[in-house]
Write a structure and sequence with these properties.
The protein has 496 residues and is mainly α. It has 2 domains: 289 residues, no CATH class; 118 residues, no CATH class. The chain has 21 helices and 5 strands. Helix 1 runs parallel beside helix 6 and helix 2 crosses helix 4.
Length: 496
């Protein structure tokens, strides 16, 4: 096996580069409005003197921003270069971990790398109705945590469960919520690996149930605290948080993988492929358990405070396994050693996902690399603001700016590095996680309603009420604003 090491290392790098090329790279996109902003603030505490809660509170359970900022200080390289480097490292960790799992489940090297190839092509595949991609197009703590979780799974499959513990502990300090799902799956996998597959204590359910009453002693009073109207308003904008509002195709995306793994379990058992059968059994048990948990957590109005825990995001891990095992089976039974079949397979899966990403980011470069000027007018405006306005500048802009044509959901806070009044898209998602921000968010968003019709008096009202002194508005600007820069779409102005 030693002579395969250089080849496998090169293939890991190859599929990492291919996966990144297909899915694209977009710093400041979506969740990076929290994570990149937190890193910037960690490096320069003078940034964001206004409303830091919209990124700071969500980072309290993660050490991610400290690690990235520490790396920047230690190496002296820029934040932009650091983010790109660690995005590559994170994706490489996922690719390597997927191969480590595949080589335990399938002996054929072609099958192993077919599984990896399908995973890397499908990085931007949505996981049913969870609002998650397998991998985000920017550096995300979930990506690193996922790589560590998958590596922990490979260690359990190798019969070295103790090695999974430090990997899961490291993942926990980066993304506790996703690691909780990883720990859950690893426990089911350990049980499935035992002889017999289900441990004895599961058969003594009444006794176990009696012992579980100890959990009632844990102080969980916050769960039953009343939800404020402002928080409910923010929560209502997120369809994916409400399990019983899912469309039929979202439910199909949640349940079909479990059915497929059930079929795999039966077939693998009949063929004597016991490790693959046990792995499929673990996926089934994990999925059924998590769905039951989700029904309990999201099915009772009295437990609405548990909604931000997003229990259906357990599907993220199942989709990884579905793509990996599905690709391995394609490699084993269809692709085999045929160069032409491999060529068609790689071309179809990668070209299709590449095209979907170009449609999604129609106003931006596919790879937004450090030091490369952007053609996106919104990113041009953010760059000018970052370089030419005071650090303590407080901005107002369209609360729905992320949804504007060609804006492509880039974050003002992360990329302009300035404070802003709350928006009605990304900040709303943050409020669903942090109910304490709901009243501030509601007041600021409601004060900006009708933005497209704002005149000087409206901007002066925002200045008097919140202290904002700068605005980013459409060009040409409303009369009376003192504007200092513009492009064909936007202009940066001061409120007199």
């Amino acid at each position: 096996m030693r002579h395969y090491i250089p080849v496998n290392f090169l293939l890991t790098l190859l599929f990492t580069a291919l996966g990144l090329t297909v899915m694209g790279y977009h710093p400041g996109f979506e969740d990076d409005g929290v994570y990149l902003t937190a890193v910037n603030n960690n490096l320069n505490p003078a940034l964001y003197p206004h409303d830091p809660g919209f990124f700071r509170y969500q980072m309290q359970a993660s050490y991610f921003d400290n690690l990235v900022a520490g790396f920047v200080r230690w190496t002296g390289i820029s934040v932009a270069a650091t983010e790109l480097l660690w995005q590559f490292v994170s994706v490489a960790l996922i690719v390597f971990s997927c191969w480590m799992i595949a080589r335990r489940l399938f002996s054929d090297m072609r099958a192993q790398w077919a599984g990896v190839a399908l995973v890397t092509a499908m990085f931007t595949l949505p996981a049913a109705g969870t609002a998650l991609y397998l991998v985000d197009q920017h550096l995300h703590p979930r990506t690193i945590a996922t790589g560590l979780i998958l590596l922990a799974v490979s260690r359990i499959l190798a019969g070295k469960s103790w090695q999974a513990v430090p990997l899961l502990l490291l993942a926990t300090i980066l993304h506790p919520l996703m690691t909780a799902f990883g720990v859950s799956f690893c426990l089911f996998l350990v049980m499935a690996m035992l002889e017999p597959p289900l441990p004895l204590w599961l058969r003594r359910w009444p006794k176990f149930r009696q012992g579980s009453w100890a959990a009632a002693l844990i102080p969980l009073g916050w769960v039953f605290e009343p939800a404020t109207p402002a928080w409910r308003e923010a929560l209502g904008t997120r369809h994916y948080l409400f399990l019983y509002r899912w469309a039929w195709y979202e439910w199909l995306g949640a349940l079909a993988p479990l059915l497929l793994f059930w079929l795999l379990w039966r077939i693998a058992q009949k063929r004597g492929e016991m490790l693959l059968a046990r792995f499929a059994l673990a996926v089934i048990l994990y999925g059924v358990f998590q769905i039951v948990v989700a029904f309990v957590m999201l099915g009772f109005p009295a437990l609405i405070r548990l909604t931000p825990l997003q229990p259906m995001r357990f599907l993220h891990l199942i989709y990884f396994f579905l793509m990996l095992v599905g690709g391995c089976l394609l490699g084993k039974y269809l692709l085999k050693a045929s160069i032409w079949r491999w060529a068609v397979f790689l071309l179809v899966i990668n070209a299709g996902m590449f095209a979907s990403q170009r449609l999604q980011f129609s106003g931006s470069e596919h790879l937004e690399l450090p030091g490369r000027p952007s053609v996106n007018p919104w990113l041009q405006a953010f760059a000018w603001i970052r370089q030419n306005t005071p650090t303590d500048a407080y901005f107002a802009l369209d609360p729905e700016y992320m949804d504007a044509p060609d804006e492509d959901y880039h974050s003002f806070r992360a990329l302009a590095e300035r404070s802003q009044l709350a928006d009605s898209i990304k900040d709303t998602a943050v409020v669903t996680q942090i109910p304490e921000l709901a009243e501030v968010w509601k007041r600021q968003v409601h004060a900006q309603k009708g933005w497209a019709r704002f005149q000087l008096a409206d901007f002066e009202r925002l200045k008097a009420e919140f202290g904002v002194s700068w605005v980013l508005v459409a060009y040409p600007q409303p009369k009376g604003l003192a504007c200092q820069w513009h492009n064909s779409v936007l202009t940066v102005c001061r409120i007199p």
